[in-house]
Automatic annotation (TrEMBL):
GO terms for cellular component: cytoplasm. GO terms for molecular function: ATP binding; protein serine/threonine kinase activity. Keywords: ATP-binding, Cytoplasm, Kinase, Nucleotide-binding, Serine/threonine-protein kinase, Transferase. This is Protein kinase domain-containing protein. SUPFAM superfamilies: Protein kinase-like (PK-like). It is found in: Cytoplasm. Pfam families: Pkinase (PF00069), TBK1_CCD1 (PF18394). It comes from Varroa destructor (Honeybee mite).
Length: 765
């Protein structure tokens, strides 16, 4: 609301009040011949709103009482010792925005507070970082709370209002046009004015800067309105570099200086674009804003360290990925590709010395629901990503010395003592110093991750080779069983061949038996040769990788040669604290307005100390931290180049061994051979029966095809006795074949540690 106060009134207080209203003498909206117009608020409206809302993320109203002297209404509210979000962002520590954990906390609390207001049909109308307070709970948790409801009012979803409230930089363009540019009109506004303010606030929190910045700041109001109304849909920032509108730099992305991970930025940018949309038809609704932020806040985060580039990133996995292990593994592969560029087939992902999909499968099998389980990761305990087709390992471009020189430049101090300018310059120095400290910490983490990354790969290689050895041994056992089976079948075939004289004509059944045995023998010989080569290659890998753990020993020596970064983080923190003390001293001098001669000398000394400390801080980053980490990355590059061929060989060998088939396939092959042989023998027996029917053998004449000896015709009893002996021997050998197959199955189960029942079930399936 706008109050009017007659000129000539006395009093220098910044805030003035009446029984129902409070206004600021520093917020002058206009002057006339007889009065000055100030911006003010209705006290009772704020009382009413605060009494209606009650939520953890809204500053609690403790009591409404009267001043003992003036009898004016006063609000008693809970104390938020963490200060306002604006003061937090104003600290040089947060000049580039909040870090990811704190930003997500602000997003969660801001969303929850605004949802409570909307559920109670209340609009805030002056949402900004200055009206968001940080409360520190007894358990140490930080809670952000909305405050200052002087401009708030009840407004249903379909209602509109005409009164003007808010802070210029956070105002909806339509309200800015009327309240700031003084353009008359009868335009009405809806609750979506809060959505615009939320978008600007979130951008400010994420980057440390306002999204729309005209040249010259808030004094350049026409350009400010031009930027917010003429920007294309999807543009989330516009910065004017000089007096011309052609110098406006539009952007659809957050700046490179933003501290948020790429994964979070990709989710946040569409939200900002939807909130800061001047076209009401395209602007998001509160429901959509709440839904999208809920997706971010409920997503499961996976921290990843990409070893080949020494780079960190975060995956945001939504709940629909967490139901089945296969779905989760597929989604992770896709997310990793989007952020690293590594193709799925080339991704080698580890967590706690296990392949990531194996870890997920193991965790899921232990879950009662069978749902996929995502490991708990953090920035210090990430998932490791290797590129199996790229042996290059280097410090990522964002940490290179050239990027550091371009990104972290200290401004020059004025040689003279200019208090305002010196304080502003010192604040920038402090901001840059905090950024350098963060880079030192990133390099320290990269150094720590690089130190253990080879252990992950070496452990995987040993596990892989151990699996190869077990699979080769199992395949050899099955191969031996098949060889014994074929040997028995071949012996049976020779016994059956003794009956060939009983069948003088060519016998197709005997020929098929012979062909079957020859084919199976050729297959077994080929498999045996392949197994022999696989066994030799596995033994060679065991000697190179497992025996004496040479990969571990080599890496231990090379890592020791690269040096350590222990203490670098603490040293950087000490330097930054000193620079902060220098900045605070210069800020105090600014507040003093004038300095004595001796105070000026101390002022100059503070600037000199700040310059000296910053030189040491930059040297710590470039000459020590970056150099040591780069040296370790080079050592790992050499080690990885040597280890990668072993990995490729083991992987290829695994495919060869896998081609031999599993236990059920070997068992099926043995059973198939047995069935085919049994079927052919049965057919041959039927042929014999057809050759020697009882009717033919009962008369005295020799039947066709009867075996003739030197003594004359072979008697029926002699033929029958020979046939019976041969068939009994065949039956015995077939039983022996079955026993061999079963024995091989039992041996395989013992080697693979599989319960026999499971093995039999697999074989039957």
């Amino acid at each position: 609301m706008y109050g009017r106060k007659k000129q000539g009134s006395r009093g220098m207080a910044y805030l003035r009040g009446s029984p129902s209203y409070v206004w600021s003498t520093g917020c002058i909206l206009g002057r006339g011949a007889t009065a000055t117009v100030y911006q003010g608020v209705n006290k009772m409206r704020e009382f009413d709103v605060l009494k209606k809302v009650n939520h953890e993320n809204i500053v609690k109203l403790i009591a409404i009482e009267e001043d003992l002297e003036s009898a004016s209404k006063i609000l008693v509210m809970e104390l938020c010792t963490g200060g306002s979000l604006f003061s937090i962002l104003d600290d040089p520590l947060n000049s580039y925005g909040l870090e990811e954990e704190e930003f997500l906390l602000v997003l969660k609390d801001l969303t929850a507070g605004m949802k409570h207001l909307r559920d109670n049909s209340v609009i805030h109308r002056d949402l900004k970082p200055g009206n968001i307070m940080k409360y520190v709970a007894e358990d140490g948790r930080s809670i952000y709370k909305l405050t200052d409801f002087g401009a708030a009012r009840e407004l249903e979803e379909d209602q509109q209002f005409m009164s003007l409230y808010g802070t210029e930089e956070y105002l909806h363009p339509a309200m800015y046009e009327r309240a700031v540019l003084r353009k008359h009109g009868d335009q009405r506004f809806s609750s979506n004015v809060d959505l615009w303010s939320i978008g600007v606030t979130l951008y400010h929190v994420a980057t440390g800067n306002l999204p729309f910045r005209p040249y010259g700041g808030r004094r350049n109001r026409e350009v400010m309105h031009y930027i917010t109304t003429k920007k294309d849909s999807g543009v989330i920032s516009g910065v004017q570099r000089d007096h011309t509108t052609s110098s406006i730099e539009w952007s659809r992305d957050l700046p490179k200086s933003c501290l948020l991970s790429t994964g979070l930025q990709k989710l946040l940018v569409p939200i900002l674009a939807g909130l800061m949309e001047c076209d009401s038809a395209k602007m998001w609704s509160f429901d959509k804003f709440f839904n999208e932020t809920t997706k971010i806040l409920s997503a499961k985060r996976v921290h990843v360290f990409y070893v080949n580039e020494c780079r960190e990133f975060v995956l945001y996995l939504h709940n629909n990925s967490l139901h089945k292990p296969a779905k989760l593994a597929s989604d992770i592969t896709e997310h990793v590709f989007k952020q690293s560029g590594v193709l799925g087939k080339n991704q080698l992902v580890f967590f706690e010395n296990l392949l990531f999909d194996q870890y997920i499968a193991g965790a899921s099998s232990g879950s009662s629901s069978g749902a996929a389980s995502v490991p708990e990761t953090n920035i210090s305990h990430p998932v490791f990503l290797f590129n199996r087709e790229l042996c290059d390992v280097s410090v990522s471009a964002s940490l290179s010395s050239q990027e550091l020189e371009n990104g972290f430049k200290y401004p020059d101090f004025n040689q003279a003592v200019v208090l305002d300018e010196d304080a502003a310059t010192a604040k920038i120095w402090c901001s840059v110093s905090h950024a350098i400290k963060r880079q030192v910490e990133r390099l320290s983490r990269a150094h720590a991750h690089l130190s253990v990354a080879p252990l992950q790969l070496a452990q995987h290689l040993e596990t892989l080779i151990g699996q190869l050895r077990r699979h080769v041994l199992t395949a050899q056992l099955h191969s031996c069983a098949l060889e014994r089976q074929l040997a028995l079948i071949s012996r049976s075939e020779r016994h059956i061949a003794d009956l060939r004289p009983l069948v003088p004509t060519p016998c197709a059944e005997l020929d098929k038996i012979h062909a079957l045995i020859q084919q199976r023998q050729q297959n077994v010989v080929a498999v045996s040769e392949s197994l022999k080569r696989a066994d030799q290659e596995t033994s060679a890998l065991e000697t190179k990788v497992v025996g004496g753990q040479p990969l571990y020993r080599i890496w231990k020596v090379r890592k020791a040669e690269c040096g350590s970064v222990i203490g670098y983080d603490e040293t950087a923190a000490t330097y930054v604290n000193k620079i902060r003390e220098n900045w605070q001293a210069l800020a105090r001098d600014k507040m003093a307005k004038t300095l004595s001669y001796h105070d000026e000398q101390f002022h100059v000394l503070e600037k000199h100390k700040m310059q000296q400390t910053s030189v040491r801080l930059m040297s710590l980053l470039q000459d020590r931290s970056l150099t040591t980490t780069t040296r370790l990355a080079q050592a790992f590059h050499t080690w990885y180049r040597e280890a990668l061929p072993y990995l490729r060989q083991a992987t290829q060998l695994g495919l060869v061994v896998e081609s031999f088939g599993n236990a059920s396939q070997w068992h099926a092959q043995a059973a198939k051979t047995e069935d085919e042989f049994d079927q052919l023998v049965s057919q041959f027996v039927n042929v014999l029966k057809a050759r020697f029917p009882d009717e033919a053998l009962s008369n005295g004449s020799p039947p066709n095809g009867t075996m003739i000896t030197a003594d004359g015709y072979c008697s029926r009893s002699r033929v029958s006795r020979t046939l019976l002996i041969e068939l009994q021997e065949l039956k015995r050998q077939q039983h022996e074949i079955l026993q061999i197959v079963e024995d091989s199955q039992e041996i395989m189960c013992r080697v693979m540690n599989i319960p026999p029942s499971t093995s039999n079930a697999s074989a039957e399936s």
